[in-house]
Amino acid sequence: MQESLVDRFVMDFQMLRLAAGDASYAQIAQRVRRLREERGVSEAAAYVGRSTVYDAFRPGRRRINAALVADIATVLGEDAERAEHWREYCVRAQAEAGARTEAAGPAAPPAGSERSADPIEAPAAPVPAQRASPPPVATSRRLSAHSSFLVVSILIVAVGVAVNMGGSLFVRAVGLPLYLDMMGTAIVSLALGPWYGVAAAIATHGLFAVFETTLVGLPFALVNIAGALVWGYGVRRWRLGRSPARVLLLSVIAAVCSTLVATAVIMFFFDGFSINAGAHALSGNLVAAGHQIWGAVFSANMITSLMDKLISGFVALAVVPYLLRPLAGGEGHRIGGFDNLLVRREPLSPATGRGAAPLR
């Protein structure tokens, strides 16, 4: 049986949700309500329930609210042009489903039914309507999409941990006044979300503690976690991943937050002694010049952290689209640049079955 365009739309729309961080239906409903209220819609009119949002992603549906689809696409990170594209895709899919139904026409009466024209029989008792179950093919594809997202997520976190450890070992070997132990965290946070970045940060410092058989660097996991939260939420909540200037600002914010946490860790756990040779030498020079130890540690770490986070942020921005490509499946998909760090999947063209041409 040929897959309908509505089911194809639902799978494409589900992939958008997965690529946007696998937001729950309740979270999406809350974001849609907030979006509508920001447009000036009353609270009652703006309300949308979790089940209504779920129905937009449920295979087997034949009626989907196209306006709601556009709002969902917007809260999942799509711009106005792309949200309208999703709305039109939904309308086109439902129109095709309606055309198929009309083409099928009413079922032919059984042979000999002409004799039933004599007396009019009493109608049979109404049968309670049953909710249509999703087609097996669509259900298996949805499970496959979730499985693919899980596998790719695990691989991206593993890559992030490896990049963190490799960058840190390189800096130690060369003696640079940098850290480079958060490039992988930035990659994971931008690609998957802040809490995936937190997992990469904890795994990085945990593995270092195991391999080096020392806990001396473990408190700096707090610095890595701070960077993961700033990068992850900066892209998703503050929309700071849509232009080079915003990425620059986000990296500066990550540097400031990381420096504040690092200064507290250095002062409380190491009495002002930084385990990074370059940062320690710089803070020592500032103390010798008459600065207070707190100010010297903060200034030294701010200088090194600013360079470090700018490098990490822009390296992550360049790498993220290629890491997320497996989620999109390759052909017919566009990988965003500065305007969108997440994978955008182009809806399929009903005429060709291939991805529509990218919107410029």
UniProtKB/TrEMBL annotation:
<feature type="transmembrane region" description="Helical">
    <location>
        <begin position="178"/>
        <end position="203"/>
    </location>
</feature>
<feature type="region of interest" description="Disordered">
    <location>
        <begin position="100"/>
        <end position="139"/>
    </location>
</feature>
<keyword id="KW-0812">Transmembrane</keyword>
<keyword id="KW-1133">Transmembrane helix</keyword>
<keyword id="KW-0472">Membrane</keyword>
<protein>
    <recommendedName>
        <fullName>ECF transporter S component</fullName>
    </recommendedName>
</protein>
<dbReference type="InterPro" id="IPR001387">
    <property type="entry name" value="Cro/C1-type_HTH"/>
</dbReference>
<feature type="compositionally biased region" description="Low complexity">
    <location>
        <begin position="100"/>
        <end position="114"/>
    </location>
</feature>
<feature type="transmembrane region" description="Helical">
    <location>
        <begin position="306"/>
        <end position="324"/>
    </location>
</feature>
<feature type="transmembrane region" description="Helical">
    <location>
        <begin position="247"/>
        <end position="270"/>
    </location>
</feature>
<feature type="transmembrane region" description="Helical">
    <location>
        <begin position="215"/>
        <end position="235"/>
    </location>
</feature>
<feature type="transmembrane region" description="Helical">
    <location>
        <begin position="149"/>
        <end position="171"/>
    </location>
</feature>
